[in-house]
Amino acid sequence: MSKKHFSPLKVSLLSTAILGSLGALQVACADPAPVYNGGYQVDTSINYFNDAARAADRGDVGALFNYEQQMSGGLFAMYPAYWRLNLNLNAQSSGAISQFVRQYPNTVMAEKLVADFAEAKAASGDYASIRQVANLIHNADASESCAVALGFNHGGDTMRAMAEKNNVWLTTKKQPALCDQLALEMNNNVLISNQDRTARLKRMLRAGKTGDIMALSSKLGVPIAYSALSEIQLNPTGFITRFNAMPPSQVNQYLYLYALGRIASKSYREAAVQLDFDIKQDNQRQSKLLNDDTRRYGYRILGFQRMMHNTDDGFNSEAVDWFVKSLDDDFSNEEAEEYAKAAIRFSRWNDVVEAIARMDTDMQKTNQWQYWLARAYEQSSDTKKRSIAKKMYQHIAKSNDYYGMMAKDKIGLRFNPSSAGGSSLPSISANDRARVMQDPHFARAFALYNADASRAYANREWNWAVKVARDNRDDALILAAARQAHDYGWLDRSIYAADNSYKATNLALSHPMPHQSAVVRYSRAAGIDPAWAYGIMRQESRFVTSARSNVGASGLMQIMPDTAKYIARNLGETYSAANANSGDTNIRYGTWYMGDILGKLGGQPVLATAGYNAGPNKAKRWQPDFGSLAADQYVESIPYPETRNYVKNVMENATIYSSLLGSDRPILQRMGTIPAAY
Fold it and tell me: Do domains 45-180 and 516-674 have the same CATH topology?
């Protein structure tokens, strides 16, 4: 981000030292000026930071030892030690890691080092070392949590090993390798029942995970040989053809599901024909070859696979019908969610209720599924259910997220900025401003932000600082830090802080409006709502001008190079990558492209938002074939998770920005109705 947001004195101060025990020093910056009192000694460890980072990049252990001495006692003293230990993490002892944590307690780098150590040791099979540091890990991600669970699993602590069961046991989605390993190993955990094993086995048969199938079936006492799976993989239809002549054993029931899953992965239509034929043949016999459980899960395979092909083949209510034929008490959250989305798409409201009932309790309680349960009850002819729906909307409406906004509309409430902390920047006391720089985590983050260090380090320190303050329920500190970051122009972290406070909120911090003149001017020139433009910009870049995605999109509006060339050509301009990425031009190009997509998609903002993320052709494919569809139903059934969440966030953002810009427009009115494809 450009440093033009800093006042000269602020740059001078932070570029020479990290703020600390500064007495009554007053720093001139954005109004009102913060005052920093007390805290850490002014130190110069930040001055060595980038040199030490370069030494780490080239693996220079000797230089890192020297930097440890030079930076000792400063706020950044832990970094050269972290880099040195991390150069060969698997060779480190748990004692060395524990010593680092003791030396630099409650720091993000101590947390990161010990979590990385656990992952490395899990990958190498040194589970004893994991157990020795497990209690030092407090903020683990999915892979790190699985590493810790693996450590306990190999130490005989079966209860603690089971902590990740709900996250890893029934999912067929891609997950970290250590979580796959943990799920496989859980098969031997004494707390896993045969009912648990059977439930997972069916999901693995659907997904075709050979190793899991063999391990689970063996533990269940019905071992499935690799040779049988391999033969079916090569010719699943051939197996089903021979199935009629096979004895009705449990192994053959499982192999049937495996074969059906392999056919369905290539053609759910062919699999449906085969299953229906086999069931019809069964019904004509006195003895059935397919047992009831196999029949039901066969249809589950069809319903699930059908939902994976909505973009290519279009939506079809047959997915709902197949899920209905599969109804039992053995749904995973993953399967129940697909059933619910299919039912929502086709307004099959009784099925929406059925699908939600098959989710676990925690999932049912989320605003997302409470909203859709209320939507389903709202359609009922039963006045009692409609009354329940209204009460549910009233509860959800207390939130200002996407579902809370829609619930407000359902009961006739308008979004009130004051309910989200107001639209004016919060007034911060001198004491709270001083506390920000007395806090070592925020102090490190601000210094790194100004030191031309990799932004990843500053962001990591910032996020940790917010977490610590949130854990302490210190909203005053979070808001003070967010206000300070906002005043410096570090808007993405200001937004992060405002969004992650314990209770306090402030729209001026969570939904800033930089470049307002340009955004409004170019939006109007493009014929689009400035609130929508801000909604897109906040979601795309969090207002980081230099933002660049891993696929090459760049700038405030995250425009792909080919798209920028298309825009420049249509505007009669010569394409320049440097110009396209600059703030003003990027806004002009982005708003023009939003208007272009909006025009191509019939002026429908939800379609255009989906099109901005996934491409206009994808947004068109997701339109209904005939009739119209409520926009919330369209959004919930978007097949791409990234695009589905993107549209929800942009619509929420745009609704808030419309209020801030004085053109309040409720979210459901904004979203409108999705017309049939044409």
Answer: no
Residue 464's closest CA among 477, 447, 445? 445
Q: Percent of the chain, pLDDT > 90? A: 86
- The span from the CA of 115 to the CA of 92, in Å, is 13
Give SS3 for 185: helix
What's the rounded mean pLDDT across residues 399-403? Answer: 96
Going by C-alpha positions, the residue among 429, 402, 431 that lies closest to residue 415 is 402
How many Å apart are CA 353 and CA 342, to the nearest integer?
12
259, 265, 270, 274: CA torsion to nearest 10: 30
Nearest of 677, 558, 551, 660 to residue 621 by alpha carbon:
677
What is d(CA 255, CA 223) in angstroms, rounded to the nearest whole number? Answer: 11
Dist CA 339 CA 321 (whole Å): 10
Tokens of 356: 């939600």
Domain ranges of the chain: 3-42+423-510, 45-180, 366-415, 516-674
Residue 286 has what pLDDT? 65
Task: State residue 422's pLDDT score.
Answer: 86
Report CA dihedral (11, 13, 14, 17) to the nearest 10 degrees: 150
Question: What is the pLDDT, as a whole number, of residue 12?
Answer: 30
**Three-state secondary structure call for residue 664:** coil
Domain 45-180 belongs in CATH node 1.25.20.10: yes
Q: How far is residue 435's CA from residue 441's CA, in Å, rounded to a whole number?
A: 11
pLDDT exceeds 60 at position 15? no
pLDDT, tens digit, for every residue of 321-340?
999 999 999 999 999 999 99
Kindly list the distances between the CA atom of residue 264 and the CA atoms of 207, 273, 279, 307, in Å, as whole numbers in the listed order: 10, 10, 16, 12
- Return d(Cα 214, Cα 231) in angstroms, integer: 14
Rounded CA gap, 508 and 426, in Å?
A: 8
Query: Can you read off the two tokens belonging to residue 174?
Result: 């891609």
What's the CA gap between 379 and 386, in Å, rounded? 7
For 593, phi and psi rounded to 5 degrees? -70, -35
> Could you name the CATH architecture of 516-674?
Orthogonal Bundle (1.10)
Question: Which of 464, 594, 629 is closest to 524 using CA atoms?
Answer: 594
In three-state secondary structure terms, 453 is: coil
Residue-wise pLDDT tens digits, 412-427: 999 999 888 888 999 9
**CA 675/CA 300 separation, integer angstroms:** 30
Mean pLDDT of 256-284: 94
| Dihedral sign from CA coordinates of 189, 192, 198, 203 | negative
pLDDT at 43: 59
- 26: pLDDT strictly greater than 60: no
Beta pairing partners, 674: 629
Bridge partners of 630, per DSSP, are 673
Rounded distance between C-alpha atoms, residue 461 and residue 456, angstroms: 9
Residue 234 CB neighbour total at 10 angstroms: 10
Using DSSP's 3-state secondary structure scheme, residue 559 falls into strand
